[in-house]
Amino acid sequence: MTTELKQLITGENMWCNVKYHDARSIKPYVKVLILTNHRIGTSTDDSDGALRRLFILPFEYHVPDEDVDLELTEKLKSELSGILNIAVKGYIRLARQGFVYSAQEESDRLIEMYLKTENPLRSFIKEKIVFQQGAKLSYKEFKMRFQEWGKANEIDIQTELDSKQILSEVKKHYDVECYKSNNVRGMKNIVIKK
Question: How far apart are CA 162 and CA 19, in angstroms?
Fold first, then answer.
């Protein structure tokens, strides 16, 4: 999904499946609007490049079943000119604000939360690990503090990490060395912030 999202946003040619037709190459010319009732899909993009281009606007109101209007589409058709006027006024206001959405802080908060849940190990390292020459951090301590961090951030960390996974992710951010002393294994040159 990450690759396709970047292609759409940057306007690169991409393959598109059209229902009941053969796939074809298109050059998208509009920005993307994704409406979903579900969590954003899994991303393997370590750069967060796709998410930096994302603006999440939450709609948290739920229409109770008894209030659902099955004729809403027909009612809205008679209001199309008014809907267009509201959209134009909104665009003008957005242009005056330098295309900065007024709900930017909420979107940033949701993206930050998404990043934490999407790759909690990476988020933990960015948030809690710092370089300290000569310091030692055991894998056992790392795992314990990672679990504590997950609970504090309401992130359900179910995967049991092994030392190779931890070392691989930490090495993306810090120049660490492995150590083993009295059957205790860990990494040198990093500590966990208090």
Answer: 44
Output the CA angle 173-192-134, nearest 5 degrees: 75
99-105: Cβ within 8 A, 24+ apart: 101/55, 101/57, 103/57, 104/55
* pLDDT tens digit sequence for 73-102: 999 999 999 999 999 999 999 889 888 777
Element (H, E) at 89: helix 80-96
**Residues paired with residue 26 on neighbouring β-strands, in sequence order:** 14
Question: Any idea which residue has 């603006």 for tokens?
Answer: 55
Handedness of CA 127, 150, 110, 45 (dihedral sign): positive
CA distances from 16 to 4, 11, 98 (A): 10, 13, 32
